[in-house]
## 1
Amino acid sequence: MTLHVFDQAIALQPLGEDRFAGKTSPAYANMVGPFGGVTAATALNAVLQHPALLGEPVALTVNYAAALADAPFEVVARAARTNRSTQHWVVEIVQSGETVLTATAVTAARRGTWGVDELAAPDMPTADALGQPNMAAQVEWVRRYDIRITEGAIPTAWDGSGDASRTTLWMRDEPARPLDFCSLAAMADVFYPRVWLRRATRVPAGTVSMTVYFHAGGAELAAVGAGWIKGQASAQAFRNGFFDQTAQVWSEAGRMLATSHQVVYFKE
Amino acid sequence: MTLHVFDQAIALQPLGEDRFAGKTSPAYANMVGPFGGVTAATALNAVLQHPALLGEPVALTVNYAAALADAPFEVVARAARTNRSTQHWVVEIVQSGETVLTATAVTAARRGTWGVDELAAPDMPTADALGQPNMAAQVEWVRRYDIRITEGAIPTAWDGSGDASRTTLWMRDEPARPLDFCSLAAMADVFYPRVWLRRATRVPAGTVSMTVYFHAGGAELAAVGAGWIKGQASAQAFRNGFFDQTAQVWSEAGRMLATSHQVVYFKE
């Protein structure tokens, strides 16, 4: 059986004592280095593969210190603290002796409690109604998803006319793949830079730090399977070379799966 | 001259080679251990005091691994990567040989660029119109702030009647203190647990991880001085023992200063 291209991209070989070996995948190439979502998923995968793992992911923060070279790398994942039902992880990705990513994660054994989704998923036309992927594939990784934007597409005229930064979309892996924590972490990062939309101006931009909170457990993600995922992202402020982005990801049935926040560098 | 009580609480003594000594302050005591906002500010302070610091804070993530004991602690802050204009920090707070907090931070030398605040500050009555602090001081740290809630107060009847989780408020240090990165990081955490408001039910709750993005530079924070700060927080989803909270902090003039996101443990 051949592994799904996403599983190939995030695959790690244990090197013992908190260390794992990986390598970048050309299938998820971005403008420079790999798609940040796949790098985030790889950092999380080291935690999930770790023999000392307790529970399932609740929070993941990744900080992109440098673009990864298209080459092997090493992931170091250390359980800094293990409590009765929560565990705190410190992760670094190192390439040629230099840190290219720092990360932290919190995992926990979840228990059933009262709950409610406060933020409802946006109303939007069905993915089928849109008919086909419509996010311009200017870089390779975009072809690894079927993304159907329902609001806030990449501008086609770069005329400075933008006035809002919200994008809503449908997405799923291409080819289809059952949802899990790693693919969900990657999907939190599929939204192209908000500054392009808000300004209708294409400027260099790259994520500096991203945090993902997982609201669903593994069983719930498995139940979503390879179904459509609904996503929404918008910025709150742009200033002096950085902007932020809040994002939410729901199942097709409207169940909140993850919320995310990132800060992005931009030029000019 | 006596240091402001906040500066006393976050004070660190350099121990050389990435290490700093601090101790908890009874003035900021929470239910168990110190107010998480002050612990976040202390982690950030280690980065700001570090002799290798480049630039100013852009992003801070703190993960609360255990309640701090009311005792001395050590902060380890390491520059994992220094680029031309950004720097990546890995921080841990250790007490009695155990990790009680993990953190990462990104600092950067900011340059002037195009900018806009996309999310406008909520309209609300002035702090003066409210007349006095109105957030019930059930724990000591609340007395270190003048907090005037304009919407979404702590319920007075715990009758399960809640239906929304948004709180808007005015805040400033008490006594007054000019705003800086550390006090802004702490202010991102003043919002009491959203689960109390949403359910009108008081359950045990504690922040697990918090991220703060700084949209203003040091000069801009200095210009805000000891003025009123406007804050807003709401949850997006509650499920299986955890909920998230997004928060925004503006100057009185309505300028976005910071955006924040946290995930909080709750019981039942």
## 2
Amino acid sequence: MIKIAVDTLGGDNGSGPVVEAIIQFLKEYKDVSIIAVGKKEELKKLEGVCEIVDAPDIVPMEAGPLEVMRMKNSSMYKTVMLAKEGKADAVVSAGSTGGFLSSSTLLLKTLPGVNRAAFVAPFPTKIKGHYAVILDIGASNENSAEELKQFALMGALYSEHILGVENPKVYLLSNGTEPKKGSPVGKEAYKLLSNYPFFKGNIEARNALNGEADVIVTDGFTGNIFLKSSEGMAKMMGGLFKDAFMKNLWTMLGYLHVRKGIKNISKIMDYKSTGGAMLLGVNGVVVKVHGNADTYSMFCAIRVAKKLVEKDISGKIKEGI
Amino acid sequence: MIKIAVDTLGGDNGSGPVVEAIIQFLKEYKDVSIIAVGKKEELKKLEGVCEIVDAPDIVPMEAGPLEVMRMKNSSMYKTVMLAKEGKADAVVSAGSTGGFLSSSTLLLKTLPGVNRAAFVAPFPTKIKGHYAVILDIGASNENSAEELKQFALMGALYSEHILGVENPKVYLLSNGTEPKKGSPVGKEAYKLLSNYPFFKGNIEARNALNGEADVIVTDGFTGNIFLKSSEGMAKMMGGLFKDAFMKNLWTMLGYLHVRKGIKNISKIMDYKSTGGAMLLGVNGVVVKVHGNADTYSMFCAIRVAKKLVEKDISGKIKEGI
């Protein structure tokens, strides 16, 4: 039986959608038990459904590492502690990213051979059903070349064992394809990675999602810029197309003809279904959901946590690194 | 009379589209004279149309600074020399970015008070007709906080004088809006910029193109990632929508209803019309066009060069910095 601890507080939408997601999840998956952590009075619907741990405090969005570690009655701290004490195999939270990152790395520690944990997310590419794994997308502000090398190894293991890609192709995100291109740290990482057969060189941001790369390695700051620019542009384009369709009766009629195709695009671009960002490299399974997660996002995140436990991603990294 | 020197070699499509662009441009604008630099035998159509300078050599795409400076018979070197000698007010090239950057900065020098030149491009935003100025998008690989401050000043002057924005709002591209967010250099730049009333703080990549920011400041590596991710995503979304429309007769019928709206989107997203990237901070007007520039792109680039000379952007920066 896989045990997943879920932080029900800290998300922008309160505990409501989280409670719903837990109920739906336990209905669908019988081989998982969930521990819901949060304000007891908000979790009445879960009585008899799953274990409940009372934790009345919410870690504020902008909490620093020290603050989180002092908030021992917060839902987040208690959630992570369940993993530390071996009472949960995985933890899921939609709360403060910084807080979740600090509490997870400080309480669970990084795996041997891993200097820093990385947030990783599978990103839809131009090829239907193919995802590129991008890391780090924001756990760090800067990274050393050695850390980038470790990200490459972890990303390859993730792509292989979680996404089922045989011989994943790993690239460094850069401002040109030649080896001499890139940030100073990137150029150093290029050298360190040159001996690994999975490493295929630099890739430009423009081509990152064309389906060629299975894993894209970058420092946390650049990864955040990549993720957010792509998101922003996708949203802008989506909005422009929507405007074009909603102009008048004729254009709406046009929409009727292509709505299946458009829905298909939404499906391809649906970040929710990939279940948020996983913190790779810590001694445990840690899944961070968007702050504004709804029931569906939370459901998918718990499902990802389950898969990561089943596939023993931490064990694979421990072996592989 | 404004004099513009145009490098006709070095672009992926050869001198053909450049020659066409020059002919069209001189037909439309009578207050400009052009000096076409390139292989004499390829410029026969320009005889009697404009001045021709023979330069048979092409600077290779990946040329280093030393190599370019040694290629004194190259079209690029000769083009930039025309500006250095005061024979041209502006230079335009679709050739090697690195080569053009090196020859321009080494021959023309940076303006007093400017440590490093920056590539800048106006970027279409969600608001129709509004452009955000982003710099540096690739002249440097890394930048100091002082350089970012200078980029902010140059960007504000560009936005005001070239795009006609009153009191432009300047932001730093970052991974969060709070002052403590950002790369180490970014955080330092934040402090340096705090005293300037035009500076409005950090902006996330996701919101960079929502129309709020008139100028977005970033180091060259991050700027390249931002530009290319946005470009890549725009292309991917465009392709997905095209697929949706081209599926069958019904979906094509749908397209007929919205084609005006779709064409409008293409217009908004048309990078060609903004005329490539300008190298701000050098003592002269330097416009770099995409390597795969067609006649229309070259035409727009020459038009931008004309505007930059008319508005005396270099003089404005010299005063303002």
## 3
Amino acid sequence: MESPQALVVLSGGQDSTTCLFWAMREFGSAQVVALSFDYRQRHRIELECAAAITHQAQIPHQVLSIDTFAALGNNSLTSEMAVATELNPQTGLPNTFVPGRNLIFLTFAAAYAYPRQIHHLVTGVSQADYSGYPDCREASLRSLEETLRLGMDYPLTIHTPLLHLSKREAVLLAQELGILPLLASTHTCYEGRRPPCGECPACRIRARGFAEAGIADPLLNL
Amino acid sequence: MESPQALVVLSGGQDSTTCLFWAMREFGSAQVVALSFDYRQRHRIELECAAAITHQAQIPHQVLSIDTFAALGNNSLTSEMAVATELNPQTGLPNTFVPGRNLIFLTFAAAYAYPRQIHHLVTGVSQADYSGYPDCREASLRSLEETLRLGMDYPLTIHTPLLHLSKREAVLLAQELGILPLLASTHTCYEGRRPPCGECPACRIRARGFAEAGIADPLLNL
């Protein structure tokens, strides 16, 4: 078997799932592998969704453990702290912000890619994300790409197919890729509920994207 | 108590220990904290040395767990694979190379620094290191600094006091800082032996540095 060309960082959410199928179209299904991180996220359902999606897509899937974020503490994605809908007045960021989380994910993805001679990383980050995480911005990602190339002395490209898409356009891309039904297997809700709570910021953004695209979210028809 | 200004990434080796005392001189002892990583290194003695050194220096010391490198496998620093003195013909690097290890350490250090409002990171990396790890080069570190600033939207400086020093000059800096006796508490040997094996690449480089400085290594007089 030829070695794969592209690695998709798969959270189990709508965006990274869309990116998985984008990569399968761009590189060919046999050339794609998926990597998820068990970083002690509060909602294990994300990892279950990632496993279900890769199983349906017949894509090799690896889960790597990262125990460090939980040790760092101080955020609501890995602790029992309630998810605030307000921004932290000190940082201007929601308390779901884990500083550097995407930098760590992509650096570990690169370390995984290196011995396997995979040169393309794909991530579902989007600047349209309401929360404005600084590690989801184009300048951060281009800088990280350069850091990884230099720091591993290895040619790597970080692909960000959703970076400049609105949530509406992301839904339309999923439609174009023919994976709307599969989005029923993705997880978005910050409250970890399935069917989703419909009230948390993540649910609201997802709902708005589908509404603006004029498409029914298959997740709501379970 | 004022919040600290500088965080030193402390491995327990000669170089990071010298950097700890460099930081104490530059920022003041009360302004420095030390961070070590338990990444399932083969030789736990490194972490014991880091604890002993910070205890002697009366510097707050935190150990953060990283279980991911062991899951990535494929290197001799976290597995039982023998340490080769030869280079890997495929990569031109010794098999102690963990791709991106310093990138990960510094990114987690930045994530630790962020909520504590620490803006200075100090690392003992050196370009004089025989092995030429690409993540110890100046270009990689400057790029990483930029990536962390952008990706966390937070002003950070990475200090690398040993970057351009030869091993001889690093020993002379330790002498200038008055910490030569303390270097008996540091660990260098890749074989994890104390007293050191004297034969592995790390022992040989350390010995050459002391020899060229005309100073006896206190570690050898235990």
## 4
Amino acid sequence: MIHNLLKDKKVILASASPRRKKIFELLSVKALQMPANIKEDQSYKNPRKLVLHHAKNKVRHIRSQVDNDYLIIGADTIVYHKKDILEKPRDRYQAAEYLTLLSSSHHYVYSGIAIAYKNQIVSDYEKTKVFFNEICPEDIAEYVNTQEPMDKAGAYGIQGFGSQFIQKISGCYFNVMGFPISKFYILLLNMLKADQ
Amino acid sequence: MIHNLLKDKKVILASASPRRKKIFELLSVKALQMPANIKEDQSYKNPRKLVLHHAKNKVRHIRSQVDNDYLIIGADTIVYHKKDILEKPRDRYQAAEYLTLLSSSHHYVYSGIAIAYKNQIVSDYEKTKVFFNEICPEDIAEYVNTQEPMDKAGAYGIQGFGSQFIQKISGCYFNVMGFPISKFYILLLNMLKADQ
């Protein structure tokens, strides 16, 4: 299990996200949280390449600041809707605009994950399809008022009030929350095996 | 949104489940929790009929004890694997046996939900397909040791350590956790419209 693989390691979570912190808590993984303030590269139009690039940049950024016996974990999540990449909304108006786009429609959530440990950097990504019910304009306005959409890619949180708008998903739930747990487990296991 | 539909109602959650309580909290729904100790009927072999029967029995059980201006919500969740209904494991050995069955396989989670309000009782169900990765025997033993499997249908919790074994799902995540939120929203909305 993940917490056993990590129990003797000094772990850094290269992210400021409270959702990722919560996921680490539910897995009983102790990690130092160090946000990696990387410059986000807008030139990638391919969602898979974008999240992998950002996740790797986050761990590289922290790698340059700490000893290489720290195991550093980075992740990046975006919402991809009809060839548009939706990141965190700028303001309430953009949040309402994003939610109007997502209503009665489906989109994909991509997360890239990267692990840096000793001289290795490994990475992988996950993709989940999310289907929204129709969200009436009153619900969009109320939901924006809760503030929940403001710090989240695509302007919704699957683990909060946003849950009531989601008809179904196809793929990994935790990927939509911002950290694909079972994909991470496999990546970590293979990396540590290669390290032995 | 759900908490607005319920804010002027006296709500009872007819369940002892801490997961359902947590879901109500994340939706900001205030409810009195009253476990309905119904006799579980083992004669149903059809998972859909079984969960609907149990959910309705739970709200009927509470209905008989309180005034009819209380809005009572009941739910029942089971795991269905190759025509076998897996409920909560009896003991550690049965938990390990269930997890061995679920490893490298898929199963279905069914939840029935029922709402009793004034003279109405309405109900519906949700079904989610869950795919497990291979879980090695060491992980099964360790997971059983965490105690997490013991009070859960199918011997796993998707929202805890169990998350790392789940490759993907197809359907509603909260259904697997024990309460299908978006299906409940639609059921509640239609019931209250009919009541007006």
